[in-house]
Automatic annotation (TrEMBL):
Gene source species: Paenimyroides tangerinum
Keyword line: ATP-binding, Nucleotide-binding
Organism phylogeny: Bacteria, Pseudomonadati, Bacteroidota, Flavobacteriia, Flavobacteriales
InterPro entries: DNA_Partitioning_ATPase (IPR050678), P-loop_NTPase (IPR027417), YlxH/NBP35 (IPR033756)
PANTHER family, per the entry: P-LOOP CONTAINING NUCLEOSIDE TRIPHOSPHATE HYDROLASE, PARA FAMILY PROTEIN CT_582
Superkingdom of this protein's organism: Bacteria
GO molecular function, one term: ATP binding
A matching Pfam family: ParA
Keyword Iron (UniProt): no
The name this protein goes by in its record: ParA family protein
Amino acid sequence: METKKKPLFIAFSSQKGGVGKSTFTTLVASTLHYRLGYNIAVFDADFPQHSLIKMKDRDLKMIMENEALKKMAYKQFTTINKKAYPIMQHRSDSVLEAAHEFVNASVIPVDVVFFDLPGTVNTPGILKALAGMHHIFTPITADRVVMESTLVFTQLLQDVIMKKGETDIKTINLFWNQVDGRESTPLYELYNNLIKELGLSLMQSHVKNSTRFRKESEVDSKTIFRSTLMPPDERLMKACQLDLFMKEFQKIIQL
């Protein structure tokens, strides 16, 4: 009897808002699904904002109002011959069960399920949800408050949840986001050494700072960066080194 291949459960997770977890969920999911041919599903459990659900509504409206993007979307979907990946809203305390039910019921084999989770450990069920991930990726910026919050959070996952053994977590990966080339290199070296001393994993990729991470595409735009319906433009990916991040990301999760 042939059994379904189990999908990877992945979360971009952080205890600090504004570092890019929802944005990276979208960028990576869209690259894998629309450009690289994998089948992706997303669960938006980030109550109360549910930003990915709202983003998909905005993306659809933007494409319908922009002739250039409408043509791009039509060409894309007829070429890849598959639908947009689903984004489902759910509570964090039962999102794992919902994901397993979705995967088991899906006619199309799912390769990766992404989870957009709340940014606080006080949320009911959040630790259980995190323990059910196979890989966790945490964006960090060279900011003292962000670093302190992130390092405490990551050590909690590594030293408490993973050491208890009741977890599916294989890797926890910090990575630099919003890197400004004008910032002093010693600052990054200081944090890199601290991360190493704490025994935490840091990705080699540095994603450069870009206004594209914080703004929706303009109404008259002819390129796409952050979208739930289309992959990010390859030139824009290269400009902020997101292309290098994707290669390292795929290597880590062995996809």
